[in-house]
Amino acid sequence: MTKTEGYFFWRASTEIIGYAGSWKTISGAFSYFTPRMSNSDFQYFFASALGASCSLKAVTPLLQLHQEAEDEEARHQIENHLAYLLEEEDGPVWDGASQTLDVPDDDNEPLRFVVDRVSYFDVVQKAFRDVAATQSSDTTPIYEGKTYDVIQLSHRLLDRLRSDDRQFGRINRERVAFEAATGLDTRSFYTENGTLLRLPAAAIIEDFLDSGDVNRFRAGQRYFFGHPIPE
Q1: How many Cβ atoms are within 10 Å of 187's Cβ, its own excluded?
Q2: Could you tell me if residue 1 is inside a domain?
Q3: Long-range contacts of 31-36 (CB under 8 A, 24+ apart)
Q4: Average pLDDT for consecutive 10-residue bins of the chain (231 residues)?
Q5: What helix, strand, coil percent values describe the chain, rounded to 5?
Q6: What is the total count of domains within the chain?
Q7: Is the pTM higher than 0.85?
């Protein structure tokens, strides 16, 4: 990763680190690459790795990334993963930091957007405290504001697929989390051009929930392709 800047390489590497690694592994990788903190690509990709950790400890480094993020796409990525960690549905954390247009007195100076991080960080910290108050330990895996549970995640994803839920980012995040945990192929969730196929997608989840495989998973434990991830 230190020698390659390719988009797909970094995307794959950070997703594997996030979905397969322990918090020690993920936080260690983040610390190693800290000199890249101001790089928008690093911010974008490592937001995914930190979010996939399902750890409340990820909130602090995610906010550190946000503090450095000048690129709007990277900033939204960070906000999305904070929301997936702390909110069951898209809410104020998902909405992100507000922006105002700063018009300088000097006409020769460029216009710029000012990001209200102070207010947004207060929103995130409140959501963090609310979730933390429901847990007996900060090491308990968390997803969407609750104790991480592969079976509950599967039911929630199935409900979204059966309804007209339009939270497409959240649906995709749940799909990736489901595939990483179970090892089941979810490529048929989408057409080649990225259109969500609700019925075929729901069938994959239904088959899993009707199988004996559900007995392998317990609440409060992260998995990668069916194998428990040591914390």
Answers
A1: 8
A2: no
A3: 33/1
A4: 68 94 96 92 96 98 97 97 98 96 73 90 98 93 98 98 95 97 97 96 98 96 97 78
A5: 60, 10, 35
A6: 2
A7: yes
Which residue is listed with tokens 């216009």?
Answer: 111
Residue 213 sits in which domain range? 149-228
* 12 token code pair: 């794959």
The Cα–Cα gap between 46 and 98 comes to: 22
DSSP code for 196: B
Nearest to 33, CA basis, from 8, 14, 59, 57: 14
Tell me which residue has tokens 């509950």: 152
Give the model's pLDDT for residue 3.
56
Single-letter residue type at 142: I
Of the candidates 43, 41, 49, the one whose C-alpha atom is nearest the C-alpha of residue 17 is 49
**75 and 11: one domain?**
yes
**Do 14 and 126 sit in the same domain of this protein?**
yes
pLDDT at residue 162, as a whole number: 97
**8 burial level (CB within 10 Å; 0-12, 13-18, 19+):** exposed
Last-in-domain residue among 101, 132, 163: 132
Rounded Cα distance between 142 and 148, Å, is 5
